[in-house]
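[step 3/7] fold_predict: job queued, chain A
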Amino acid sequence: MTAVAITPRGPFSLAASMHFLEGFTPAGYTSDGRVLRLAFPSDDGRSTVSASVWQANDPEGTVLADVTVHTGNPGEERMGPAAAESNGGSAVRAQMARILSLDVDGSGFPRLAEDDPVLAELIAAYPGLRPVCFYSPYEAAAWAVIGHRIRMVQAAAIKARISEHHGQRVTVAGESLHAFPTPLVLRGLSGFPGLPETKVERLRLLADAALAGDLDAAGLRAMPVEDALAHLRTLPGIGPFSAELILIRGAGHPDTFPRHERRLHASMADAYGLGDPAASDARRLAGISDRWAPYRSWAALLLRTRWEEMSRAASRGRSVR
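[step 4/7] structure written:
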């Protein structure tokens, strides 16, 4: 086990992240309100990482984690105590920072509120909230394939069963978790209950693409946004919506406006008083989002969070904020 410390640049609240994850069905994170438990395939495509994460009560808001890298076959519980350092500890630290959007300097994000009353209200309502990403572009792509044209809760159940049957079991802060299988394991998937053969084949091909480097987070973020999206759309089963999901919530790109996220567009139209027809005018909404640069993805997250909270409150017959 190796200790990792990450100092946020700009406001960050792990508590806000954990609260947000309560409604983020696809990822399968667990927490007790203080410690966030993670289990995920590492970016190397061959090993699994487990980590318990918490935030120190210090002026910097340091994020601390106990990390272990697991190799070998699923079911093998743990490697040696120096494993994380000897097996690319800096790469694992970078992946964890990306998952929590701590690899981005967020010190300029609050300044967006100076010229945008809508963002001012949102930043005040959700202090320190940054996007919490899928563990990797590979896992985001797998989710996109599993969840295509089925209900989210059904997709989440299938993804959890795949993890239980084919992923590595680890113990994190006293709790047993199953990570999603690494690409090296998923490429051998021969079939799975609840998944048609077309989706199984697409998952195998995505695993091959991940091992070939086609889902490398740093590479995707280094491309111009449109080039990255076009590249992702060449992968099996990945359309325009899924490509944006992979780039924004998988690779953690901080400055991409989702042009195919209808719930976000509805939230924008409502928050900015644009009227219902504007919700379908992606070009107009993208123009508004230009004022959010270089944090378009972050601002979009706050608007989507607002919309989800309003929808849940409306279903209970009361207003929110």
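[step 5/7] annotate
Residues 75-87 have pLDDT under 50 and may be disordered.
The chain has 14 helices and seven strands.
exit 0
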